[in-house]
Amino acid sequence: GQQVMQIPQYQHVQEGEDFTTYCNSSTTLSNIQWYKQRPGGHPVFLIQLVKSGEVKKQKRLTFQFGEAKKNSSLHITATQTTDVGTYFCAGIPPGGYNKLIFGAGTRLAVHP
Amino acid sequence: NAGVMQNPRHLVRRRGQEARLRCSPMKGHSHVYWYRQLPEEGLKFMVYLQKENIIDESGMPKERFSAEFPKEGPSILRIQQVVRGDSAAYFCASSPNGLAAYEQYFGPGTRLTVT
User: Fold this and answer.
1) Is residue A97 over pLDDT 80?
2) Interface membership of A102 toward B (CB under 8 Å)
3) Do the Cβ atoms of A43 and B106 come within 8 Å?
4) Are B25 and B48 within 8 A, CB to CB?
5) In 3-state terms, what secondary structure has residue A83?
6) To the nearest whole number, what is the mean pLDDT of chain B?
7) Distance between A15 CA and the closest CA of chain B, angstroms
8) Contacts of A33 in chain B (CB under 8 A)
9) Across B21-31, average pLDDT
10) Do B112 and B20 contact (CB within 8 A), yes or no?
11) How many contacts (CB atoms, under 8 Å) link A and B?
12) Burial of B77 (0-12, 13-18, 19+ CB in 10 A)
């Protein structure tokens, strides 16, 4: 079946350093969404990318969707302690409806 | 506007008992999705339902698991004869539309522990 791989599994950074997580799908995706989950919490929607090569920014967060719509990345500039959590990408396969295939997530720890 | 509600938040069951997890979608949402999350892992799709219909249950184990979303009331995920391997966090999400353009709103989850 369709798989979405995400690396790295863990990332420890000093506050102020940058962070990037990468997502790769075994097949072309219709859309890709990114979620953040704080420890003990639930996934919270961050953004959706739809177009090939799309780049979107939210303050210090930059999201990219690859040209082939099979990979994506999330980059955080100058991390803060509030960025701590697990970041998940979730791909939506072609075919119409909103079935999310989640990557395993990247757990980010930020040391002050 | 209340978000997605799930109850109970924590559920402890002994092996062989039944677990019933409830999910009330956001107001105006008629599409519900259930996901399972094992510790330190991502979320795995289980089932997608609309009111009174199961649209996709490809992620549901073939035995012991069932889901429904009746015309009135919450969506229910039912696990019969629970085993230790069923211990996980179960999240429900809702959206106003099943099309791929819409984000999913997640509930707080039910943490199931099987002893």
Assistant:
1) no
2) yes
3) yes
4) no
5) helix
6) 93
7) 23
8) 103-104
9) 94
10) no
11) 67
12) buried
